[in-house]
């Protein structure tokens, strides 16, 4: 399944929201997030690729591979994480 721009933006926003706790302070490093994603999904995404995707430094846009996007979605929809529902993702693709 190919993901549209709105779905990719939703995934990025939810990862950024997850990475920052409610006070706006980071939960940990990008490497910590990468490790947590790997622990929950079994797929290892490079720390740098994840950082560029989430933060877009210098306005750079880098969209992960479809395999990595599926892992990010799996992470965000994981029962312990619950930062994204399949319905939200579907709706972002149809709006």
Task: Name some characteristics of this structure.
95 residues, mainly alpha, 5 helices, 60% helix
The portion of residues forming beta strands comes to: under 5%
Quick one: how many beta strands? 0
**Biggest β-sheet: count, sense, barrel?**
none
Low-pLDDT residue intervals, each spanning 5 or more residues: none
What is the average per-residue confidence, as pLDDT, rounded to a whole number?
88
The tally of helices reads 5
Give the structural class: mainly alpha
Topology as a string of helices (H) and strands (E): HHHHH
Number of domains: 1
**Roughly how many Å is the radius of gyration?**
12 Å
- The portion of residues assigned to helices is 55-70%
What is the terminal separation in angstroms?
A: 17 Å
Descriptive account of the structure:
With 95 residues, this protein is mainly alpha-helical. 60% of the residues lie in helices and 0% in strands. It has helices at 5-19, 30-41, 47-55, 66-77, 86-94. The mean pLDDT is 88.
Short synopsis of the structure:
With 95 residues, the protein is mainly alpha-helical. It has helices at 5-19, 30-41, 47-55, 66-77, 86-94. The two termini are 17 Å apart.
């Amino acid at each position: 399944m190919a993901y549209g721009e709105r779905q990719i933006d939703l995934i990025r926003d939810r990862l950024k929201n997850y990475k920052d706790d409610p006070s706006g302070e980071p939960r940990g490093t990008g490497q910590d997030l990468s490790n947590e994603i790997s622990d929950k999904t079994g797929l290892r995404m490079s720390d740098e690729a994840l950082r560029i995707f989430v933060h877009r430094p210098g306005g750079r846009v880098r969209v992960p591979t479809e395999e990595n996007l599926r892992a990010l979605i799996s992470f965000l929809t994981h029962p312990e994480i619950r930062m994204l529902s399949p319905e939200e993702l579907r709706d972002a693709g149809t709006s």
